[in-house]
Amino acid sequence: MYQVSYLALSRNNPTAPLIEWSELLRENTMLNLLKKLCLVGALATLTACGFHFENGELIPQEMKTLRLESSDPYDAMTIAMRKQLRANNIQLVEQGDVVVLRLNNARENSEVASIFKQGREAEKVLVLQVEASVQLKNKQRYPINTQVTRTFFDNSRAALAKSAEKEVIWNDMREQAARQLITKMVALKQQVKSQ
After folding, report:
1. How many structural domains compose the chain?
2. Membrane-spanning residues where (predicted)?
């Protein structure tokens, strides 16, 4: 980087610091322009070669359209499942001869993992257990289950903030469970196909 020289600040040449700063700004502008050109070049290269991020590529074609069933369509687990199915480019339909994913049960438990000296809860283990079943086009039902576990530090002094944090963790656990169910559903299809 440039340093402003004290000799240039003499009365003989009062514009010398301005010249040095303008050179510095010009070099920074050139550097930013070079960074932007490299970014555009990298993006152009990735799009030109046909590269795209994997999103639902492992899902078999007959599972690209399915029906999601649940006892409560507005339950938090059902909403998370629907979101993950759509994120994997799976089209959801209400009727038809398609694969059926049924969410049978979702249980949320929290157990005390450790306590403070005063006897208050310090840390909890949050457990989400989801039981589901997949009915393939051959009309056979196959059970799939998943369990997601997280630890949560519970500080009673910041109850409101911890309550909001706990809800964020539960939502993240539901999304993870939904991703695991999709993975198990695809693995089940591959297993049935090989039999």
Report:
1. 2
2. none
